[in-house]
Design a protein that fits this description.
Layout lengths: L1 E3 H14 L8 E11 L2 E12 L5 E12 L4 E14 L5 E10 L9 E8 L4 E8 L2 E8 L5 E10 L4 H5 L5 E16 L2 E16 L5 E15 L5 E10 L2 E4 L2 E4 L5 E10 L2 E11 L3 E9 L5 E13 L1 H13 L5 E14 L2 E16 L4 E13 L7 E5 L1 E4 L2 E3 L2 E8 L2 E4 L3 E5 L2 E10 L7 E13 H8 L6 E13 L2 E5 L1 E6 L2 E11 L7 E12 H8 L7 E12 L2 E11 L3 E4 H10 L3 E2 L5 H4 L4 E14 L2 E5 L3 E2 L2 E7 L6 E4 L3 E3 H12 L8
Parallel strand pairs: 1-2
Antiparallel strand pairs: 2-3, 3-4, 4-5, 5-6, 6-7, 7-8, 8-9, 9-10, 10-11, 11-12, 12-13, 13-14, 13-15, 14-17, 15-16, 17-18, 18-19, 19-20, 20-21, 21-22, 22-23, 23-24, 23-25, 24-27, 25-26, 27-28, 28-30, 29-30, 30-31, 31-32, 32-33, 32-34, 33-35, 34-35, 35-36, 36-37, 37-38, 38-41, 39-41, 40-45, ...
Length: 673
Amino acid sequence: MRLTSSHLLLCCCLLLGLVPAAPARADVQLKASAISMKGVKLQTVTIDLGNQGTGGVALTMHAEQAAVASLGWRRVGLNLDGTVQRDPQLRWIFDGTLRVTGAPGGALKHTHVRFEVSHAANTLLLDLQQGKAQAHIAMPLDQTSHAQVNLQKFPLAWLQGLVSTVWSGRLSGGRLDAELAMDLRDDGLQSSGQFTLSRAGFDTPAGTLAGQALNGSGRFSVDTTDGPARIDLDSNLRGGELLLGSIYAKLPDHPVRLSLHASVQRGAVELSRLRINDPDALQVSGTLAFDAKGNLRTLKLDHFNANFPVAYQRYGQAWLSTLGLRKLSIDGQLSGSVDLQGGEPRSFAFTTSGLDFSDAAGRLAASGLQGGLDWSAQGERPATTLSWQSLQFYRITNGAAQSRWQSRGGMLSLLQPIDIPVLKGQWHIGRLDWRPAAQKGQRLDTSMAITGVDMAAFSRAMGWPAFPGTLGGAIPSLRWVDNRFELQGGLTANVFGGFLDITQLSLEQPFGPAPALTADIQLSQLNLGAITSVFDFGSISGRLDGSIDNLRLVDWSPVAFKANLLAGSGGRISQRAVNNLTAVGGGGIAAGLQGVVLKLFKTFSYSRIGLSCTLKGSVCQMGGLDSNDGGYTIVEGNGLPRLQVIGHQTQVDWPTLVRRLEATAHGAAPQVR
């Protein structure tokens, strides 16, 4: 049998009208395979009516499956059990229990329900209560698609089904108080009202949109009819945490104004109006869009203004960490605009009247930053000025300078050369062109020169022993290709009376968690006496040549290289230096030179010293001047007493070798294992 809602209501009224005349034990049972009404479908329905003998009728209804499209309910079970009575005002009143099984969010598992039907007032009133949660619903009998709803301490998770009709997100906690109007249509619903949230939570399958312990209040409107769902929100949020893509916000206890207009379709979210006002930290206006997986599709901030350090503490830490800038110390003000499409920049502009910042790792810092930049992927933008009191890159501090910039056709260019003081020398930038929107290939092209940089100051900044000398060189082209800086030309360091020539230099992910540097280094005529005095190695006279090819550092630690060092013009070597070279090579003194005789001499004459190491993985393949079954020669003596140092370990664990080198550099006796 198939009943419509009007048929069911008619049957119930007839039965209730017969209750006073019915026998005390009269029972009536109705069964239906399906009951359909607007937006609701019940299947396998059983209704039992029984005379209680007190003027009331016991009513029990069971539906094996129920679907309420507007609430996102599918295949839930319904059980209604209670008593129907008619009061002196001729209102039908039901009082009983509603149990819903399988509803999203565990809604209405065991709920006290009371509803009143008044034909005179043309009104149906429905009250639901489960624990502290309450809902009061009023609707006209001649328009049951319209309802006035009051919710108190309503679990937010109970609205999961409703939310799932327009969004792929999951409500994970919190409670809701609300006063709203709702209209159910054939193709969705329309609702508006005011609300208060307490410790609300949500997330998305991709984990890129989430909220936790959010508190707030405001007004809203929702329309899911005729196309994408449309949401308007004007609210004040207090406390809690919010994640929007790479932007993580830890909201303050005072109100933060959030206003937006959103369109939601098939899980994708577009905020065509977004305004945020946190008075002492951040003001933002613009648009934002995420795809169905929660990935950021577009971000256009027509205006933002940030006051630091508060804006960084509440909103900027997570986002800047994704750019490799962690644990920043930042103070000042920054305002501007930004436009990202598909994750790629289309325009940006910023200006500051004073900004200081530095990261904990010492990789990037600036003080007294003033002015700004203005860039667009198309057209031409006005020229801007950017100045600073100091800039720091990887512990190297650069002095004050002022630069002029202009954007044309997607390229941001330095308008005139600048000279920047650095470590008693000068850094000259003759040309710099930057294409921020370049996805692959060349993003930056520049020419520069470095002159007179004090190597002792450079060494101290890098945490090395103080090397004497100067550093300089011409770099006709430094290019940013993909995510890698490449230097054309090279740098030359005049150190220890000789030269270091650095070529084929490139740097990947310079501000990432593990920057990778590659280079080739040529050593020419370095004074071994000066080198060994700096490292407390023991004295060696003579000149050193060599190469370090295919050098690769990851997070500034060597992971690969091929090094060959040769002192080929002879000299003298101290007994201590002999011991240290012997330990580094894991070898010993060749037969023929007795230990007793060795103790009689403080220095020895040598004709050649040679040592090589090829690092691959964590193993260094060692070598020297020549090799045989007994090892390889490190020191070849000259004259009497004749000295020859033999290395026996051809494969040395790299961490072990580093410990030996560190021990010799600090004057300790290295341990050979």
